[in-house]
Amino acid sequence: MPCLNLSTNVSLEGVDTSSILKEATSTVAKLIGKPEAYVMIVLKGSVPIAFGGTEQPAAYGELVSIGGLTPDVNKKLSAAISAILETKLSVPKSRFFLKFYDTKASSNLCLLIAFFLIV
Hints:
Macrophage Migration Inhibitory Factor; 41% helix; globular; Macrophage migration inhibitory factor like; Macrophage_inhib_fac; phenylpyruvate tautomerase activity
């Protein structure tokens, strides 16, 4: 289950966050090769962020996935997600940082099983 956490110092008030969530979900699913039904996107706005010593629009993201991440995929994901943030939130591509975590299924299988048993 890929999960993309995005934080930005841009206010989300009056922003169509649904379109951002839908586009990010579709992009992550397509590039990682997982069904959209398993992709989670978390978007937080108005987070205090300084990038390069200024508080101009910026964003930080972390993407966690059990498999599917490679250097080539990561490069494509960075470009695609930064394009979404630039188009929808006016965050310049040069002021976005995305960190990747490719976890192993065996180490997280128990956590996923526990999650689904609780729900």
